[in-house]
Amino acid sequence: MRRRPGLSVRLKLTLSYAAFLAVAGALLLAVVWVYLLRYVPDNTQGLLGISPNRYLLIRTFAPPAAIAMAALLVFGLVGGWLLAGRMLAPLTQITDAARLAGSGSLSHRIRMEGRQDEFRELSDTFDAMLGQLESHVAEQQRFAANASHELRTPLAISRTLLDVARKDPARDRDELVDRLYEVNTRAIDLTEALLLLSRGDRSTFRRESVDLSLLAEEAAETLLPLAERRRITLDVSGTAARTCGSAELLLRMVTNLVQNAVVHNLPTGGTVTVHTEAHGDTSVLRVESTGRRLPPELVPTLTEPFQRGTERVRTDEHAGAGLGLAIVHSIVRAHAGTLDLAARPAGGLLVTVRLPGTGRRAAG
Questions:
Q1: CA dihedral defined by 87, 90, 95, 100, rounded to 10 degrees?
Q2: pTM over 0.70
């Protein structure tokens, strides 16, 4: 937005400082007049013939007073200019940093030195904001690159299948259609997962009272055939745990956790335990699963988009795009909750979700 040019803050402070000194000097002269000169006799002899009269005092005092007022004004202008420049120097640093950030450079930091004051507090806050913004932009760029790569894969496979079919008309058409259907289904699932992840990040959804224990039972019932095929024992226990949020998103959260626990489990004979409970104003959901041991450095990265645990066992049918726990993390964050992941000493993963109970409304 274009604005008309105006006086700089430094010049305004300078003029204000000089004006303050001039007014202070004028008030001082007024005090001298009110409390001193007005009581001096205004006659040719003065007081008892030995003291000067008002006329002589004014003639003697007026020129030095005028010079002092002029000097005071000059001192106010020069001193005010220098003082304002010194006081506004930190603001100039912050402005330069903001200008660099506006041009796309987010790596710059002010790191203002000196004792704590308002400008230092503003500088530290601005540095923290730049750090978060840089991290967010880097995360978005990484996410966009990974999403492009993941979406390009099924498209490239589809193109390859079509090229093969065009070069070999005698090839089995039913097999080609089945392969294309599988690839297209995977692309649709990935797109829906990306949209769901974006929706969770925006936190724009209708909220209602939801019982996590019921969602756990529904998710377990849906995934029971998958668990039986893999010979995984799936157990749901606990008590009612109510929270305020989107029933659809929370169901997707629980389903993703249970499916992740079933798929990334032992090849056979594993277990998945889903437990819900309420602790005061907090509703807790725990999903504990067996499996191979996870490296400690791998666990914190599992909630990153497109991150797949290379040490975990998974079938090709449910390899996924690496968005399961990322979606869970996004949904939990949108409901003002916390997500904790811990590797079990015996192998497998323990996931704990804590959400605000119905006693306090989740922040949106």
A1: 160
A2: no
Q: Token pair of 91, please?
A: 């603001």
Spatial separation of the C-alpha atoms in residues 13 and 76, rounded to whole Å: 10
DSSP string, 244-270: EE-HHHHHHHHHHHHHHHHHSS-SSS-
Question: What does the buried/exposed string (b/e) look like for 150-185 if buried means 16 or more CB atoms within 10 Å of the residue's CB?
Answer: beeebeebeeebeeebeeeeeeeeeeeeebbeebee
Distance CA 263, CA 312 (A): 9
User: CA 212 to CA 244: how far, in whole Å?
Assistant: 10
Structure-token pair, residue 186? 């995977």
CB 355 within 8 A of CB 290: no
pLDDT tens digits for 67-108?
888 888 888 888 888 888 888 888 888 888 888 888 878 888
Cα separation of the two ends of the chain: 31
Query: What is the tens place of the pLDDT at every residue in 290-345?
Result: 999 988 888 888 887 666 554 443 444 444 556 778 888 888 988 889 999 999 99
Amino acid present at 28: L
Neighbours of 146 (CB within 10 A): 17
Residues near 278 by beta carbon (within 8 Å), at least 6 away in sequence:
239, 240, 241, 242, 284, 357
Q: What is the mean pLDDT of the chain?
A: 81
Give me the phi and psi of 244, to 5 degrees please.
-110, 120
Residue 232, φ and ψ in degrees, nearest 5: -105, 130
Q: How far apart are CA 252 and CA 236, in angstroms?
A: 17
